[in-house]
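Ticket #4471: structure output looks truncated?

Reporter: J.K.
Steps to reproduce: submitted the chain below (364 residues) through the standard prediction queue, then opened the result file.
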Amino acid sequence: MARIDAFLKLGLAQGCSDVHLAVGVPPMLRMNGDLMPIKFRQLSDTELETYIIEILTAKQRERLEEGHDLDFSYVGEESGRFRVNVFRKETGIGAVFRHIPGTVPTLDELNVPQILKKFCDYHQGMVLVTGSTGTGKSTTLAAMIDYLNETRKLNIISLEDPIEFVHVSKNCQVIQREVGTHVRSFADGVRSAMREDPDVILVGELRDAETISMAMTAAETGHLVLGTLHTTGAVKTIDRIIDALPGELREQTKGFLSMSLKAVVTQVLVKTPDGRGRRAVLEILINNRAISKLITTDQTHQIPSQLQTGKSAGMQILDQALLDAIQSKAIDPDDAIRFATDKKKFQRFVTDTEIVRVLDAGGG
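Returned output as attached by the reporter:
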């Protein structure tokens, strides 16, 4: 057993989501959003590097020595499966291990709106799950793939960097390919996937113009494309895609989004009232004629009002979703207010006097 597994086993026993290892501090655990040190000595550069080198392949060691960051999956003998990022900083080497559960959670277990199941029933177009790092985008997408795997008979090709949840083919054939191991890039993976008779293509990250362009092509040619972006709202997601492509393609991109973008789900993770867990709260955009027109006429700033009026169709703006979850006692209002746009609406629910004081002073 690799020595680093001892820290990972301890983290799992504590129920953490991430294990952080860095020079000059003891190992730290991400517990319900907060970073907490464990009772251990500060790690030296030499000590930590030997721990990490022990779990790397020869190729990974070579890349690390060349100055590259590493992203890969690690499965310990007794510690489970992790997504790993290894990097160098001023004081030496560092690593973050994100725990990946052994079983894929269902959409019902995630307590997300039932409309996400409808998104899985689309036969073509693009559905995006967005949010900042660590908000559970990969988990939501994995649950959507699992729902497809249970309910339809499809060829699903998943492109990930690295592979996180491992899917067993049920009613569907699920092919998981890892960027850097099986394909050179996300864009190459999408290009290859379109020659492999896919019904659904999952793109782990729409990280550059080429990948976005290839994903758009796939969505326009009869495939359902699921993907992620590191954006914090429906409007920012649409604007990011438009801005990512060359100016001469702006009108073409807006045309694609107005016709082929089916839905945007933006999620945050908010602490539960007892502080022992976190729950996903979602903003949901479902494309319709009104939103399509706002996209093509450069009026995306008016989309939030459409989300508010489209509640009966399954749409919701994040602030309202947060308020609903507070009123049903599903989340902690003191944590929820961090994610709210109009924080004044949340003031009457907050119990932390310091937060109230800051709001009264016009801050936040």
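Triage note (M.O.): checked the attachment and the full token line is present. The radius of gyration is 21 Å.
Status: closed, working as intended.
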